[in-house]
Design a protein that fits this description.
Elements (H helix, E strand, L loop, with lengths): L5 H18 L5 H7 L4 H4 L1 H24 L1 H18 L6 H29 L5 H29 L3 H4 L1 H15 L13 H20 L5 H24 L13 H27 L6 H29 L3 H21 L5 H28 L6 H28 L7 H22 L3 E2 L2 E2 L3 H6 L1
Antiparallel strand pairs: 1-2
Length: about 450
């Protein structure tokens, strides 16, 4: 393990903050639903709304960093996140809480792409995989600590889940101010705010259509679905003609870029789906919040251990092999309790979930590096934002599938079908990544610049 520069530590800690806040609230959803007098399907919008905002706004967050400087934007976003976290405990109803949660997401949408853009721009040649692996490990630690910390804080008051962010963010800002490299932005066309809002609206309508499909008339569901399809077509047309689009369709002409984004979407679909499903699976047993926190922590153990190793494998060998193995491990980890018929058993899940988490860890550095290397260097922040959008789009689908299937069920009879769905998503991520990613090693396309440009 090479010596880790302090700027990498600062970037890793900033990246740690986002998954921490994605998972920390999960185990408290039943408690929040009870305290705010809403049902389980409705309270899941605390997760879904956060994911939609992150998916829609991260490309423009990265593009703003490209224009004004990623260091400046990253530190400003961290400050805004601390303010939103301090306001959230004041909420007394779900609407207000979701509003503060969306403010968190607005700031978090600028954190990840600019942190990754800084990392890619400053990474020592040949060690990009290692640095991305370390950052991925910190994401795993955030996801790991989140459920357990959230469960402990929720045992006192779920509002502490938000308040706990403030001192952490202040510490990250202090370290970042001292160590992050200064990189000037480049003048570009005006950011595509309309495109970002349109993407958020499209994702919101699609999510609403899915969540209300059971209650709405068939004609209403069909009409909304057609509206989403038509809106998607208009969105692509608009983005194709914009000088600085929020989600540039041209990037997806690269097979490697498209493959990397599809891979990370599928693996995150499985991950976020299980983050929602596992607390429901264990809700009827003793100490459900603590047990859920322990199992979700176990899910992240593999992510913590293997993320740096996965990055080193990319540096030494190739981006495709770790991704293919990762997808297989996700499927295996979810198939074990399914095959044993013990999908709601605490002990079985405690053994199987680290395997699935290890699979997620293997997909992180390879997909990030492959996506960034398939995009022009001047679009590093934008490309990172698009990749994060794909990641959160997968999370949106996974959380909706789990929330709708289990949140409205009278029992856990649907749990095996949920495991099957997410196991297949994990397997698909390995197949797509193993067959479409560029032969990226150490952050360099080993086929040569001409081959990379040809895509």
């Amino acid at each position: 393990m090479p010596r880790i520069p302090l700027f990498v530590v600062a970037i890793a800690l900033a990246n740690f903050l986002v998954p921490l806040n994605s998972t920390m609230i999960v185990v408290a959803l039943p408690t929040i639903a009870r305290d705010l007098a809403v049902d389980r399907a409705t309270v899941a919008w605390l997760i879904t709304a956060y994911l939609i905002a992150m998916a829609a706004l991260q490309p423009i967050g990265g593009r703003i960093g490209d224009r004004f400087g990623p260091r400046r934007v990253l530190i400003g976003a961290l400050l805004g996140f601390a303010i939103a976290s301090g306001l959230a405990p004041l909420a007394r109803d779900l609407t207000t809480l979701v509003t503060f949660r969306l403010l968190q997401a607005l700031c978090a949408a600028a954190i990840t792409p600019n942190a990754m853009g800084l990392l890619r721009g400053a990474a020592v040649e040949g060690r990009a995989g290692t640095y991305f692996g370390i950052t991925g490990a910190m994401s795993g630690i955030g996801a790991s600590i989140g459920p357990l910390l959230g469960g402990l804080l929720a045992s006192f008051d779920w509002r502490w889940i938000f308040a706990a962010n403030v001192p952490l963010v202040v510490a990250i800002i202090a370290l970042g101010w001292m160590t992050l490299p200064r990189r000037e932005g480049k003048r570009t066309a005006a950011p595509d705010v309309l495109g970002a809002l349109a993407l958020g609206l499209l994702l919101s309508v699609a999510a609403w259509t899915l969540t209300q499909a059971e209650d709405n008339a068939v004609a209403t569901t069909v009409a909304l679905t057609l509206a989403v399809i038509a809106g998607g077509w208009l969105f692509v047309r608009y983005e194709s003609g914009h000088a600085d689009p929020a989600l540039p369709p041209g990037l997806f002409r690269s097979r490697g870029f498209s493959g990397a984004n599809a891979t990370i979407a599928l693996s995150n679909l499985a991950l976020y789906g299980m983050l929602i499903a596992l607390p429901f699976a264990l809700a009827d047993g003793p100490d459900p919040e603590v047990r859920s926190g322990i199992v979700l922590t176990a899910l992240s153990i593999g992510m913590i251990v293997l993320s740096p190793i996965a990055g080193m494998l990319v540096d030494r060998f190739d981006a495709r092999l770790p991704t293919a193995i990762g997808g297989a491990l996700i499927a295996l980890g979810l198939a074990i309790p399914l095959a044993l018929g013990r999908t709601a058993d605490f002990t079985t899940l405690l053994v199987a979930m680290p395997i699935a988490g290890a699979g997620v860890a293997l997909t992180f550095p390879s997909t990030r590096i492959a996506a960034l290397d398939a995009a022009p260097p001047r679009f590093a922040g934008l490309a990172s934002g698009v990749t994060s959008t794909s990641r959160y789009f997968g999370g949106i689908v996974g959380s909706l599938v789990a929330g709708l299937t289990l949140g409205r069920a009278a029992d856990l009879s649907a749990l095996p079908a949920v495991f099957i769905t997410f196991a297949l998503a994990g397997l698909a991520s390995g197949v797509v990544g193993g067959t479409t990613l560029h032969a990226v090693r150490g952050g360099i396309d080993v086929r040569g610049d001409e081959a990379g440009a040809a895509d």
